[in-house]
Amino acid sequence: MESKDERRHLNSVIRKIYEGLLASGKLTAEDLKDGEALRSKVLSLLEGLPEIKISIDHRDKLLPNAENFANEGSFELALMFYATYYEHTINRIIGTTVHRSDLSANVTKGILRTVNLEGKLTWVLEVLGLPTFNANYLKTIKKVSEARNAFIHYKWQPTHSDIKNSSEHKLGELTVEASKAAKYFKKFEARCLFKGNKGRLHKAIKS
Q1: pLDDT digits over 47-100, tens only?
Q2: Domains of the chain by range and CATH?
Q3: Count of CB atoms within 10 A of residue 32's CB?
């Protein structure tokens, strides 16, 4: 008999399969009107695949880690996880959109490897016909990325205690803004990939 954790993990995998099919365009808003018809279509789509490939979504761990470190006052570590979450999310948005456009995998690799985070959140979105990213949250994300880089590439420069305390305070404030940016990013991803149908999909899966 399966445990609650095993059942929870299985449900999560199933949900991600449905979400992936909706994001890729293989499922449409019309398919979400009837739960039974939706399940039949999903089974048909999966049976037609030579093999099922699932990308691991590490973001399920990134945000909880960011929040835990923020609560502990370990702001540099919190910002590192927030910055990584941002990059994983925009990479998913770009990768899924390029795949949906029937462009080659090399296009995705080229964009993700050569374009920096700011470029991905500005001109790449425009080229792919996606919504514009909020300018204020973009500023926050740039600051978080800079703080993450400063932490990772630490220079061991001595500082006075009062300067250190001021820096800690600013990092704490930035961590609060980073959390708000992450929440916005979730909504932005849903807007780009699911066109407002993510909630309808989850409801249809349960029906």
Answers
A1: 876 666 667 788 889 999 999 999 999 999 999 999 999 999 999 999 989 988
A2: 4-54+198-206 (no CATH), 59-193 (1.20.120)
A3: 22
| Three-class DSSP labels, the chain | CCCHHHHHHHHHHHHHHHHHHHHCCCCCHHHHHCHHHHHHHHHHHHHCCCCCCCCCCCHHHHHHHHHHHHHHCCHHHHHHHHHHHHHHHHHHHHHHHHHHCCCCHHHHHHHHHHCCHHHHCCHHHHHCCCCCCCHHHHHHHHHHHHHHHHHHCCCCCCCCHHHHHHHHHHHHHHHHHHHHHHHHHHHHHHHHHHCCCHHHHHHHHHC
The model scores a pTM over 0.90: no
